[in-house]
Amino acid sequence: MEKSIIFPYTSNCKINLGLQILNKRNDNFHNLESIFVEIDLSDTLNFQKSEEFIFTSNDKHLSKLGNNTIISAYQKLESLYSGNDSYSIHLEKKIPMGAGLGGGSSNAATTLKALNSLWDLKLSDNKLIEIALSIGSDTPFFINGKNQYIEGKGDLLTPLLNLKLAQYYILIIDPGIHIDTKHAYQLLKKGLEVPKRHNKFLDYNNQVNWELLKNDFENVVFSTYPGISAVKKNLISGKVLYAGLSGSGSTVYGIFVNKEDALEASLLFPSYKTYLTSSIA
After folding, report:
1. Do 147 and 56 reside in the same domain of the chain?
2. What is the pLDDT of residues 140-182, one digit of tens each?
3. How far from chain centre, in Å, is Cα 15?
4. Model-level pTM?
5. Are residues 152 and 27 in the same domain?
6. What domain range includes position 60?
7. Which residues are tagged catalytic?
């Protein structure tokens, strides 16, 4: 087969504005509430026609793994809709892994959307979301991305069309610690009983109430990794509007009104990777 065209697809990540874990479900997942915000820190997935499906990456660790979310998404869609051209996928990885940013989930959703286009499957967003949920709890969000209120186990998605966050600057601080999400949930020790109060994180105008935001993972993650706790403490000592842990960590982010304040705050973390980003909506 002669060399074919490369089709690049952008795979953005997300931060959590607040995260409340309500209870453990009978299916061993957890009910949660959170605001997911898609930001412009991204990986790139390059698709190219090939004799067979091959996955490669600039990240040597991912290249050596026998499975990942991209492979799972490809094989899942191929099993449902066989008879299409094969594609190789090369992942240019930039989003930190195991950092609570949903990079793997985004990669899976991007794979589904790309193949839906390349294979001309004409699947609806609802169908893609259904398939995405079988891959991972955060994956459905990335089918449409932007700003959404997340409930259930990640399968109840409400677009927040009037939530405007693009005017803020988001500083991402990556301590370089990989936190296993499953283990983090175990540390929370949430039972089957649903709490009487839910924290909706939004005011009556469906805008973020910064004072209501909280992430249930912060207590367990900060007690285990004091260095991550120190990142948040350093951020809130400055001109930050809000600072918090994203997902189960280890990434901490700060929301800033002014770009200069965000850049100044980044200088507080010379030994960590930092990224200045913004919401895409």
Report:
1. yes
2. 999 999 999 999 988 899 999 999 899 999 999 999 998 877 7
3. 6
4. 0.93
5. yes
6. 6-159
7. 14, 138
